[in-house]
Amino acid sequence: MEKLSTLKHIKILNITDTFRATVDSARSGHGLPESNRYLNERMLFSYLAYRSRHGHGATINEIVRETRLHKTTVNKTLTCLSDLVHKHNGKWHCNEPGDGLFKPLPNPRSVKHWSDRYCYLNYYPPSAKAKLNGRRFGVNHAGVLSAIISFTKKTNPSPQLSIQLVSSLTGIGRKTVSSIFDDLLRAEIMKYEPGGVKLQLSEQHLELFQSKETASPSAQPEVCPEVAQGKYQFKNDGFDRFRQSCQPLFAQSYAEQAIELASKLKLSEIDFDESLRTTKKLNDDNILLGKCSYPNL
């Protein structure tokens, strides 16, 4: 279980009937279909709560990247959270909630942010294009497995764990949870034992989730040593993460131009990486289609 510390996670706040009623009212007001599912709203609000802890909002692309929700789903979910979120300078922010929307902790130990007062479930977002048994390992699979992980941290096997409990914790329908349980059993991620459900995560299984990004060391800018031609020079100026993304693709002179433009446009690291991937795919497609005979990224 100590290997879980290498994975990204979002603390998904435990919602109440008041939260459900608030979302239902927004759905009705905007002509959206009724649903008894609230996982998307819960996850998105919780992610914005995490961002607010550090004084930041989030763009649509950042939300998509970190939660793995589809962009269309994110837009619809923000509509359903219309009374609980707002947009400022191109980024979405959550409003500090009133009483009754989330289940409070009986005795919170340390409250450094308003979200510390509430119960939560650790959600481990799936990695891009993750597959399990040949099928996409998406948000529902990640949500169910995250709930199982939470319950088996202290007791493995867990006698309390059941399809009904996981459905209640995540807000995912019982039929869907049952189907995901079958997938996890076939992949030997979990199994039933006399003492309950036993989790058996391997290194390969951890690859289904997003890993934490390696933090760049904090240091004062310094003159970089001379390097061989074709190598990158890293400057410890806050943009080395951008340079690392550019290094496999083109010369540093082009990278510096891209970074200058990204700085003017105030792109985050996530938006910058997404732009690089999109441009590279377009370049690769042009080569395959014969529109250009050599890389022109």
Characterise the protein shown here.
By secondary structure, this protein is mainly alpha-helical. It has 3 domains: 2-122, Arc Repressor Mutant, subunit A, CATH 1.10.10; 124-206, Arc Repressor Mutant, subunit A (Orthogonal Bundle), CATH 1.10.10.10; 216-297, no CATH class. It is 42% helix and 9% strand. The chain is built from 11 helices and 8 strands. The strands form 4 sheets. Strands 1-4 form a two-stranded antiparallel sheet. A two-stranded antiparallel ribbon has the order 2-3. Strand 5 (131-132) and strand 6 (135-136) form a beta hairpin. Helix 5 packs across helix 7 and helix 9 runs parallel beside helix 11 (269-288). 27% of the residues are buried.
Order of helices and strands: EHHHHEEEEEHHHEEHHHH
Q: Which structural class is indicated by helix and strand composition? A: mainly alpha
Content of β-strand = 5-15%
Return the domain count: 3
Instruction: Name the poorly predicted regions.
Output: 214-229
The CATH architecture of the largest domain is: Orthogonal Bundle
Q: Distance between termini? A: 42 Å
Side by side, the strands of the main sheet go 1-4
Question: What's the pLDDT, averaged over the residues?
Answer: 84
CATH top level of the largest domain?
Answer: Mainly Alpha
**Helix fraction by DSSP (H/I, runs of at least 4):** 40-55%
Counted by DSSP, the helix tally is: 11
Using only C-alpha atoms, the radius of gyration works out to 22 Å
State the total count of DSSP E strands. 8
